[in-house]
Each structure stands twice: as structure tokens, then as C-alpha cells.
Amino acid sequence: MTSEAQPTPTSQPSPAAQPSKGTLRVLQLYPREMNIYGDWGNALVLKQRIKWHGYTPELLEYNVGDEFPDDVDIIVGGGGQDSGQLVIQNDLQARAATLKQLADGGAPMLVICGLYQLFGKFFKTSTGPVIPGIGILDVETHGTDERLIGNVTMKSAEFGDILGYENHSGQTTLGPGVEPLGTVTKGAGNNSKDGHEGARYNNVVASYLHGSLLPKNPAIADFLIRTAAERKFGSFVPGTPDDGYASLAREHAARRPR
Amino acid sequence: MLSFSVPLGKLVRTLSRLRGGGSAFPGLVVEKIDPGFMQRTLASLPLGVAVVSGTNGKTTTTKMVVELLESQGLKVFTNRSGSNFTRGVAASLLGDVDWRGRLDADIAILELDEAHAVHFVNKVEPRYSLLLNVLRDQLDRFGEIDKTARLLEHIASKTTGTVVLNREDPRVARIANALNTLDAVHHPEVRYFGLDESLRSTFPNDDEMRTGSGPSPSGTSVAAGTGDDVDLPAADVVLRRVGAQDADFEFDGETVTTSMKLRGVYNIFNAAAALSLARSVLGTGPVDTPKLVKALGEVAPAFGRGESLTVDGQPLELVLVKNPSGFRLGLKSFPAGGYATMIAINDNYADGRDMSWLWDVEFDSLREGGVEVLTGVRAYDMALRLQYDDVHFGVVEPDITAALRTFIDGSRGKPKRVFCTYTSMLAIRRELAKITIVEVVS
């Protein structure tokens, strides 16, 4: 592009300069086992944007065997190895009722890849065994020998163009209880057939996309933050995060091959 | 067949060199007309074949093993040109055999890409293997890191003599358990290279990447962070200390201090790996330990692995970063203080197309000094990443040629460091070759 120095958008409103509009608690689900492919970036983006919007972020972790924290405002979970999914499986079942109650009640959540699958009804692996999901999302996943891998772009009525990177061999189909997050324009998405990517239910956003998803799709991050603030404080007063580099990164990423 | 294939292959090799072609094509030709060429030639070596594999550090480690064995008077064949796959090995062999197909060497030390190594060991069973690590690397090519661990396990299971394992990488150390299921006849000897507990915190493994708090309650972590050696197997070579210009290695119950030309803690840990493999190869025969240690100290980094060039009378260091662990180790090994920094991120096939990995690296260590220039196809992804870590940066210029000029002009009189992905490193080296002496890489 240009070789001129560009203003560095690190001059975000300093939290010290004005009183916080309130604290938002972000819970990461199983960061130990389910943090592959940079899904930590989603938690980091929420933490920073909550601050840039003038609120105070509090980042919490929930791992296998931990006590489930009260007063959680946003829940995020990522992808993992097959081995990671096995480790968390029983613990997740034990937390199913709590998570379902939160989702049904409108808590904003973002689940990526492995936890997207486990938030569904079941994952039937390609070798036979069926891993039960927790049924928050009306979706089912079937393991295949085909790995869907590469850059993805999709259109979403709610969030505009969404960009990311997929890497999965489980193929997911949506039931009537959910809407797709978007329709792919490059890449595969949920499966190699219907062009759908991800799922939407209440304020739950589910997707196969890494990248990480939120840095280059700030509209989704701000949806989660706005929803959390409205539920907790009755309204959301946005700040003015500088998304200049996010826009440039999106432009360049959209031109890359599959 | 035998009488034709080697001269023909060598001829193809010469011709393809002349027209500047790829290094593996002659290997393809000889593979087609004489499928047994590689096995036959390697089987003739008195000390057999050693395979070096793992996700990070293969090239420098292989180079070290070769130089260590050469210090003991051995003749070593290696696939130097980065042809780390079967056809590349065949092509390298063609360059070294005489016209009758004879290889004048005692042993072959081969750097093999994890996925290709599996095919290779099915054709040629190695006598030794050195398995370095399983870090998140090129996941879009191999799918998952557990799968990569299984690839390394397969290499180990095909090894007939000694398997040298990284004691500190849980996925690699666990390979020893898998070998226990083999019957006694096929069970190779297992040796480890390891780290002093004081150095373990500089080598977080991928499972601890986000937590940094040691092994998980589920007990999947073998070593890192436990802080004591009680549960760990004894290692053949332990890296005890890393200084500014030297390091301490412990083997045979003694600690040896040597000056090191290599920079970067992870390079020096791989020196312990190389030393252990060299000791395995030398076995019970006479070992000239002072010469071995001297050779270790003199190993220079492989291209782009912390090598230092001179630009405008100031050092310019190239640090190759391929995956989150490598990037984190690079940032830790090469402190930012006093240096001007450029970061070059490409997403070509050889780099990996997925940018997710940048989000698994913490850039806090660059916060104080900032970053002068960001470049590469994904320069704006890097800019976005630094924005979220509150790291200040100057110019963002995806074009590497222009960016490098801006970087050099803007940081005169200062030592410089460039963190770069594989293909961006090649582009940077091409540009630097116009203004300084850079070793040509084919």
C-alpha cells in the first residue's frame, strides 16, 4: 500500500481518564484443552474492546473440575484437539444445565469449532463412537475423512461480511431450532454441501472460524459486548474503538486464496 | 538398470542445475527408473542412517550433528539443501555418489519433514532417530498436533538402534511409552536430552500456552513446570545454563562450559539434542570429548535461524518465526532492548495460510521499544495483533522491498532485528544480497 507512517491506533480512551461504565465478566471455557488455533485472540479482543468502550473487563477461566463462577456476562469457548474434547466431555455434561439455562436466558456466548460441535446434540465420530453434546444448539455433527481447510468468507445479514479460517473434519448440519450464522462465498463452512456456516440461537454465536474470529470481525465482538451490557445495565453506551487496521486487515485477507 | 540410473540421474541433476530448476526433479527421475537406488545406497553405509525430525529446529540441529560427527573424523552425508523429503534425499544422494553409485560416507544424517519422514522410514529403517518437538506448525497441512506426534511415533517405531527424545516436550517424551509396546527384538534404545529446571519456564509447551501454570490437574503434562526432576527419566545430555556467549551442558556426570556461536535459547537446547545423537552414534568407541565440545561451540546457525548480517556497519539479525512457540521463543531469546525491529508476515503455502497463530504469541516484550516496520502480505494482520497488545508500531508496508528500505534508512546507526516467516525471509535475503554479503540459499 503506502510507505507513509500511519497513525498508530493505540491512543484508545484511557480507562483512567474517565470513570468505568461498569464491569463485564468474560468467562473462557476450558482454555487449557480448547485453545487451539489462536482462539485466545477472541478473549483478548473482548477484554480490550470492553475497555475501549469504557467498561471494565474481568477475564475468568473455567477448566475441568473448577467451580462454575456466578455472574458471568459473556462466555467464549474455542476449538481443541480430539484428545482435548475427550478430556472435557464429562465435565461439560455436568455443566450442561447451567450453560443451557444461561443460553436460553439470553446470555451472549461465542463458541468456535470443537465447542460449537459439543454445544450441539451429538458428534458421531468417523470411527463409530458418538460423543454426546449438551444440546444448546439444534445441530448435529458427523465425523468424516475429509478435512475442510482454508480461508473462508461469508455473508451474514446480521454482521455483514465475516472472514476467517476453517480447519475441521466434522461436518455439521443445522436443525430447525437454529439459523446459520452466514452463507459462505469462499470455503466450505458447516459442511461440504449446503453453504451454511455457523449457527445462531438467542445470543449464542457458533462458528467453525478461527483467525481468530473476533479481531477481524469486530461487529461480532461488539454484538456480544452490547448484549452483555444491555442485560446487565439496561443499556449500552458504546465507546469509539479505532477499527482502521481491522478494516485494512479484512481487505487484504479477503483477497487471499482459499 | 543399475549401470544407467546413476549416470542418468546425475546428468539430469547437472542439466536441471544449469537451467536453475528445482532440486528434487533429478530425484524423481532416478526414483522412476531405479526405485531401489536410495535404499541400496543408504544400506551400504557402515553406520547407517539417522533421521532428525520434529516441528522446530531441524535444520540447525542437523547441521550441528553433522559438524559434531565430522569433528570425530566421520564422513557424513546429509541433505543440506533443505530437501527434507524422500525425493529430495534421492536428489542429494545423486550429487554425492560417484558415477558407479557409491557413496563415500560412514553415515547419513537426514533432516526430514514429519509427514515425509513417515514415507521415508517405511522405505529405509533408520538406525538412529532424533525427535525434537511437536509445536503448532503448519496446522493447515497436517491437521492437528496430536497427529504430528503420531507421525514422530511411527519414525521411532521404525528405528532399529537408538531413539533420542526431547524429555521436556510431553508429546515427544510420551513416545517412549508407545515403544514399550513393541516386542523386545524391535525395541530401540531410548535416550533423552533435557533442560535444567531453571530453564524450563523459557520453554512453555503448547498445552500451557495460555495458562503458564504448569501441568494441568488431569496430569497430561509430563515435565514442564513441575520444578523437580523426580518424575523425569534421566537424560543423556542436560542443558544446565545459557549465558550471553556460552552455555553449560551436563553429560557423563560432568558439566562442561563452552562458548557458543549460536544465539537463542532454543537453538542451544537443540545443541543438547545434537550432542546426544552424536554420542549415540559414536557409541562406546573412542570419543574425543574436547574436540566434540569445541565443535559444538563453533556451530554457526543455519540460514535465517538467528544469523547475523552486516548492514551499514551494524548487525542485522534474521529470526525465522514459523509458529507461535517459535515466535515466543524468538522474542524471549532475542531481547528487544537497543534494537530496531521489523516483523514480516507472509501467508504463502510454505508459511501456512492460517493467521490464527499470531494470536497465540504475546508481544508485551516489544511494548517498551515498539516496532519500527511491519511488512509482508499479512502486514495488516500483524498491525491488528499489535494494536490489541498495546504495542506501538511505525510504518505498515506490505511490499517487502519498500519496507526493508524504509527500515534500514529509518534506523541508521542501530542494530536491527527482523522476525520473519519463511517466504518473507527468502524475499528479505534476496533484497539484502544487493547491499551486503548473504549466503545464497538454493
If you had to describe this structure to a student in words, what would you say it looks like?
The complex is a heterodimer of chains A (258) and B (442). In chain A, 28% of the residues lie in helices and 29% in strands. Chain A has helices at residues 40-52, 82-94, 96-104, 114-119, 213-216, 218-233, 244-254; strands at 23-29, 56-62, 74-77, 109-112, 122-124, 130-132, 139-156, 160-174, 182-186, 196-197, 199-201, 204-207. The two termini of chain A are 22 Å apart. In chain B, a hairpin with a 2-residue loop joins strand 8 (246-251) and strand 9. The longest helix of chain B has 18 residues, at 265-282. Helices cover 37% and strands 18% of the residues of chain B. Chain B has helices at residues 2-18, 25-33, 37-43, 58-71, 86-96, 114-123, 139-142, 145-157, 170-173, 175-180, 265-282, 289-298, 324-333, 379-388, 400-410, 422-432; strands spanning 49-53, 76-78, 107-111, 128-131, 162-166, 189-195, 237-242, 246-251, 254-259, 305-311, 314-320, 340-344, 371-375, 393-397, 416-420. Chain B has a 9-stranded mixed β-sheet, sandwiched between helices.
Number of helices of chain A: 7
Task: Characterize the overall form of chain B.
Answer: globular
Low-confidence parts of chain B lasting 5 or more residues at pLDDT below 50?
211-229
The total count of helices of chain B amounts to: 16
Distance between the termini of chain B: 30 Å
- Broad shape of chain A: globular
Quaternary organisation of the protein chains? heterodimer
Q: Report the portion of residues of chain B in β strands.
A: 15-25%
Q: Quickly give the structural class of chain B.
A: alpha/beta
Question: What profile does the largest beta sheet of chain B have?
Answer: 9 strands, mixed
Mean pLDDT across the residues of chain B is 82
How far is the first residue's CA from the last residue's CA of chain A?
22 Å
Helix percent band of chain B: 25-40%
Query: How are the strands ordered across the major sheet of chain A?
Result: 2-1-3-4-12-11
